[in-house]
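Aim 2, interim progress. The first record below pairs a target sequence with its structure tokens.
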Amino acid sequence: MRTAAVSVVLEGGGSPMAETARDDRKLSVTGDDGVTLPAAVSLPVSVPIRGGLAALHPAGDPSREQCLFRQLADLLPSQGVAVLRFDRRTSADGHDVPLVIQARDALAALRTLRQKLRRRGAEGDPPPLLGLWGFSQGAWAAPLAATLSTEVAFLVLAASTKKAAGGYRL
């Protein structure tokens, strides 16, 4: 397994959380099984698109408006990074959706983001690298998604765990 440490340097001075020009759009993500998940994307406006990510949820907050996701949408577009956030699907029994379904939905989100960015790119531009940003339970689903597809160029995992997934619904 290859791993790499990545450092992000914010360009342009000033406060990284300062309001910046970005293009916020509502859209939807359609899972492989046809389930439609409400979503939003924040796209760079005044800088070239350098990459993009889909944000994956902690267990306790399935909303695309989760506070960490909003911070990503506030910060990253000014650095050329598109951010897609979507509502995690719910289960009929009130339990967490199995991680493999969360991983497949993450891949559907990446495909949606790629389509959105393809429409914005110039003819002949190489496609930007797209990855997954996972927090807590999302940091479990993200690596699983990466094992299911070559579409995932990078992972950012926050508050992940080293504990085995025994007892969890994979």
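The second target in this work package is listed in the same format:
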Amino acid sequence: MNQSTSDDKSIQPQPSSLDLTRSRPGPVPVLRYGSPVESDALKHGPRMYVAVVREPAKLIDYVPDWEHLAQHAIEPNLFYEHWFLLPAIEAFGSGVDLRIVFIFSSNPERPTGPPILSGMFPLEHSGSYLGLPAATLSFWKHPQCFLCTPLIRRAQAKETLQAFFAYLASEAAGCSLAELNFIPAEGPLYQVLTGVLHERTVSFFVF
């Protein structure tokens, strides 16, 4: 695991200047859930939606959903919880092409109600990979992040990953390569992940 010791910035688990201490937002337009995901793998499952946020100030509106997701994640990752990630974006996000991908799904307990957040993927876009020209999306790893496991709701883990890969394969993602870096090569999420990749007949390498 690569760790940086040259940057003296420190991320503290406290409200940032994005003002997370303000009153929680009221109802937000349906557009916050993004666009429906079109995928053959999801034809008979829950309705899935993808929302891509590039402006840090807009992330505040997702905090209540984000907190609930973290409590029900298939694997925890404090580095990607809102109280850590938002200050990290302020400290290290300048000059980085970041996009936070939120995956929503229909609520199995309230099928006619609003969708629930089932996945959160902080991505960094780059025009090259290992020195070769290739539009690449990878999990964002700033100098004080030592684990890049995305937050994925346990009950919808498979469907969420299917929706995520459908997004990566779309023109909107703008990438030809995806690097799922700094995630454990074992455990419940890895089992679901490899199963989804095999179903999609995607070539992948573990190293």
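The longest strand covers residues 116-129. This observation will shape the mutagenesis plan for the next reporting period.
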